[in-house]
Structure formats: C-alpha cells, structure tokens
Amino acid sequence: MKASELTPNELNIPARLVIATRESRLAMWQAEHVRARLAALYPQCSVEILGMTTRGDQILDRALSKVGGKGLFVKELEVAMEEGRADLAVHSLKDVPMELPEGYSLAAILEREDPRDAFVSNDYASLAELPHGAVVGTSSLRRQSLIAARYPHLTILPLRGNLDTRLGKLDRGDYAAIILAAAGLKRLGLASRIRAVLAPEDSLPAAGQGAMAIEIRSGRVDGADLVRLLAPLNHTATAQAVTAERKVSKIFGGSCQIPLAAFATVEGEQMRLRAMVATPDGARMASADVSGPAGAPEQLGEQVAELLRGQDAAGILASCAVTPDNHEGLAPHA
Predict the structure, then answer these.
(1) 53 Cβ contact list (under 8 Å, min separation 6)
(2) Which string of b and e fits 315-329 if b means at least 16 CB within 10 Å?
(3) CA diameter of the chain
(4) Residue 287 sits in the same domain as residue 151
(5) Does 250 share its domain with 316?
(6) Per the residue annotation, which of 57, 87, 95, 117 is the catalytic one?
(7) Strand pairing partners for 274?
(8) Residues of the chain with pLDDT under 70
(9) What predicted TM-score, i.e. pTM, was given to this entire model?
C-alpha cells in the first residue's frame, strides 16, 4: 500500500509537529499553509511554527554567490531539525541547494503556484513600454540576461530585500519597474501589483520557481513515519517537473553564480522541459527544448543538459564565473 493510501488510523501520528521557517512574510505564509494542511489532515496533532532568521537574511550587502550560496537560507533550519527543535522545514524550492546535506531529504513537493516572472511598475504596462535608459530592478542573473538580450536599451540594477522592501523601493521611485516571481505576489494577495506576467517564451523561469518543498531529517528514527504523514501534500506532476529542472541545474553546478533557467510542464504522461544558460549581458545564450515521459524526469534533465553542452554551455558558464558583478540570489523568493 502506498503511503498516500494509508488512513490516519494506520499512521503513527505524533502529538506535536514543529515547522521551521524563515521569518519573512512570504516564508511565514508558506509555513502557515503547510500547518493548515497538516492540521486538517491530522486534527489530533498540534502543529506549531518556529520562525527563524537565517544568515542569508542577515547578509544584505553582498551577493549570495560571494558568501556561500543559497544554502545560507536553509542551514539554520536544518540545524533546528538536527537539534530536535523542529521536525520539518518549509522552503521555496528555488532557494534549496541542489545538493542537500547527508541525512536530509525533500519529503514532499506541494502543487506549484504560477511559476512565471511578473513585471511590476507604477507607470508602465510592460517591458516593451519602458523608455531608453529606464531602470529595471532584479536580483536574478537569469532575469538580467533575458532582459538584456531583448531590451539592451534598459538599465538593469540589483534589487535588494524581501518582497515588501522591493515593492517599497519601486514605490519610492528607485526603479521604473521591477521583476518578481508571480507566485510570491499571488500568495500574499498582491496580484494587483502585477502589470504583466511574462510568458516562459520571454522569461524562462528558474528551476523550482513557484514550488514549495518540505525538508526533513531522513536519518531520524521516525523519518519513514514523517514521509508517510507528508505524502498527501506531495503533488506528483509538480514533483516530476521540478525534479527534471533541478537535474539540469545540478549538472551545471547548481550555483547562484550563473544565469540558468529550467522549466518543465506535465500533461498526462508527457513532460516538456525547456532550459537555457546565458552570459549576464545576454550576448551569448544556449537553449534546449525536449519532450519525453513524465515518469523519467532525471533522464529528461540529462538530455537537455547534453543539448546545452553541444551549444558551448561550458564556455558560456566559464565566462560567467569571472563576471565581477553577480546579483543572482541577493534575496530569496523573488
């Protein structure tokens, strides 16, 4: 019998579960969403939230690529699980490193929210409307490269802070427009701030964008029980899609130092996976688009990576490694 088919009476349901999360408004929304789902499934279990500030939240003057990468946003949460202060952690999957520490695993991937990028501006309806020299804010090298390739007349500057801080900077006039993840805006009830949603053809999403992940200590005594408890939250199609996306990213280093996009969609038993790597200025780009069985996501990721290699992805990535200004990952969830 599959874990998702077990009834509550057949599960070893604990009296208490603690969810570790970052304390940003979006991260807390995600943790509360998981808490509510678990409370509805297991009303006899007290589900609590442990809010934490991570080192990634504290370092605001340097790119993550310079100080340790995306793992800075999850390390403290993993320590809380190791010390027994938390049983699971909820993350935006886009912020989770491709390689987890030994003894940790992703137990469930929730159904994806809108994975696309969003154009946000108080004065303009689209990127195409922005005048020459207009300042666009983004924390992502991926977005930077894609915008620079299509709109070389625009000025792209790094955008710092959490979602509310970024919107505040736009409202103060620091930027003519900013690019954010549509998922975060929608989850926080801020969809009205979106002037346009960028189609994947124009701005291919990052691996895992819009998806939420639940991490556990797989090595703990009741690790198998936790996996079974969390099984109803796992969304198969989303899990398949992000597995393919993360495979591409992992093959190319899984780093926040490179402009890399990977986006998969699943229809029935078939998956379409698109990916690209580029230089930050958008001058050089490699892209691939393949379809195959949804049940073999890692193989599809490997196939896409091989096509990218055939377009000198290695040369593109090598040039990115020496780029002096690297803005990807200045803050998560964006």
Answers:
(1) 22, 23, 76
(2) ebbebbeebeebbbb
(3) 64
(4) no
(5) yes
(6) 95
(7) 263, 289
(8) 1-10, 54-73, 254-257, 321-334
(9) 0.88
